């Protein structure tokens, strides 16, 4: 037992969940009553952003408190133990265990699966393997996509990885608990978008297009969608263009969107089981509750699929924080997932390591958002596994997004008039417009990192002091 003002922490992550959820006013067909229910109990950060649009660099930055350009963990082939030695409890989870918490986890919390991550950080862990499914969609059966890109409904009686993990963590939410850190990482809506049929049945047979897709629906050769984008941006799109082309060729684009929405509904229903258990046990009175996603997801906007770009849909994430003494509400100030670890430690009464780069969000939890930094930084690029990665950086403020690519090419969007980032203001501006844009562009450029780490070596590091 710890001597903390809020002796429990419930830490919930939902993989690949973009901003389509009802509390963020996303897709019109989204079914997320339990995220809406949670929003009524928490502070909702309406503009929270990932540090990178990929699982490993985002989750590593979130849980270890350092930006990718500080660590060299840029891509999914870079794992936490390539930099942070196992056994030293350097992550948020390890720090909480050292502080006296029982750390109890299930599902995808870190971007590694059971044989890879540091079990010493966990008091108890539910080890499960991911599900295997036979091919379901015509696109998958064609052989044009890998098994991880499949989608479609399964039998309602089939219990999946996420459901098993949810039931396991629910059983550990016991009345009167103190000093517990419970972590549940839901894998859906990560691909494959395969969930029980009843979650598909919640949706229209033909769902609406993604918000911001454009007037004419999805067409993989629609050059107008990318007319204002610089060459490196188009390169990032091409890296995953095969998914959109295959879906379009087999007439399954809308089915794919529907399957993503069904996967969100499935994750939301599992969240509901956790919230029901919190109601049953009365744990709301002494538990900090955090819910986040590691990055967004694109379904054809600007012809982009998956994450792997620096635009709003790929970087914006749900972020909820609530608990004793935290009044429910909303804040529009931009924040980053890099802020999550120092905030959780602060709420737990645990010292924040000096190496952490994020800000403590507790002022915003008490109505003082004006004290936050006012922007969120992100990184992505190409050739990230090589010795000389091509890095691009994004900065998001309340009003603007600015992207600077490795070639010097740039994008600038004004979110007050262009929330879906259709009009790149840096694309062939007139001289008069450029003069007006220059102060905004220069101020945003000054916020970008000036130093970047080399890519981390892709082999585990030996134990060394990093406190």
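-> sequence recovered:
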């Amino acid at each position: 037992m710890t001597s903390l003002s809020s002796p429990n922490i419930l830490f919930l992550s939902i993989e690949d969940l973009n901003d389509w959820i009802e509390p963020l006013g996303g897709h019109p067909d989204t079914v997320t009553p339990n995220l809406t229910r949670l929003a009524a109990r928490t502070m909702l950060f309406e503009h929270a952003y990932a540090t990178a649009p990929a699982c490993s660099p985002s989750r590593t930055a979130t849980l270890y408190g350092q930006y990718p350009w500080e660590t060299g963990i840029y891509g999914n082939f870079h794992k936490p133990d390539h930099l942070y030695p196992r056994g030293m409890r350097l992550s948020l989870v390890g720090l909480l265990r050292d502080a006296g918490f029982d750390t109890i986890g299930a599902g995808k919390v870190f971007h590694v699966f059971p044989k890879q991550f540091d079990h010493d950080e966990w008091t108890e862990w539910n080890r499960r393997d991911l599900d295997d499914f036979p091919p379901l969609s015509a696109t998958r059966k064609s052989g044009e996509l890998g098994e991880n890109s499949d989608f479609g409904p399964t039998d309602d009686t089939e219990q999946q990885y996420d459901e098993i993990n949810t039931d396991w963590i629910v059983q550990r939410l016991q009345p009167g608990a103190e000093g517990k850190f419970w972590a549940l990482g839901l894998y859906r809506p990560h691909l494959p978008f395969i969930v029980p049929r009843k979650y598909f049945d919640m949706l229209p047979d033909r769902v609406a297009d993604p918000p911001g897709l454009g007037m004419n629906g999805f067409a993989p050769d629609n050059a107008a969608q990318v007319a204002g984008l610089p060459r490196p941006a188009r390169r990032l799109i091409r890296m995953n263009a095969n998914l959109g082309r295959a879906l379009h060729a087999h007439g399954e684009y809308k089915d794919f969107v529907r399957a993503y929405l069904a996967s969100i509904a499935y994750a939301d229903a599992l969240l509901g089981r956790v919230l029901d258990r919190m109601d049953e046990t009365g744990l709301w009175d002494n538990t900090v509750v955090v819910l986040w996603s590691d990055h967004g997801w694109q379904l054809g906007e600007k012809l982009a699929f998956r994450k792997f770009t620096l635009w709003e849909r790929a970087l914006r994430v749900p972020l909820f924080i609530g608990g004793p003494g935290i009044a429910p509400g909303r804040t529009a100030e931009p924040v980053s997932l890099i802020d999550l670890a120092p905030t959780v430690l602060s709420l737990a009464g645990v010292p924040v390591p000096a190496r952490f780069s994020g800000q403590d969000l507790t002022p915003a939890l008490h109505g003082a958002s004006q004290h936050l930094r006012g922007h969120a930084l992100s990184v992505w690029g190409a050739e990230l596994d090589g010795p000389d990665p091509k890095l691009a950086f994004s900065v998001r403020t309340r009003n603007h997004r600015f992207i600077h690519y490795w070639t010097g090419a740039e994008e600038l969007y004004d979110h007050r008039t262009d929330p879906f980032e259709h009009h790149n203001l840096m694309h062939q501006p007139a001289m008069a417009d450029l003069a007006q844009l220059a102060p905004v562009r220069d101020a945003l450029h000054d916020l970008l990192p000036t130093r970047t780490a080399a890519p981390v070596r892709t082999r585990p590091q030996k134990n060394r002091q990093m406190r």
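Residues 158 and 196 are 7 Å apart (CA to CA).
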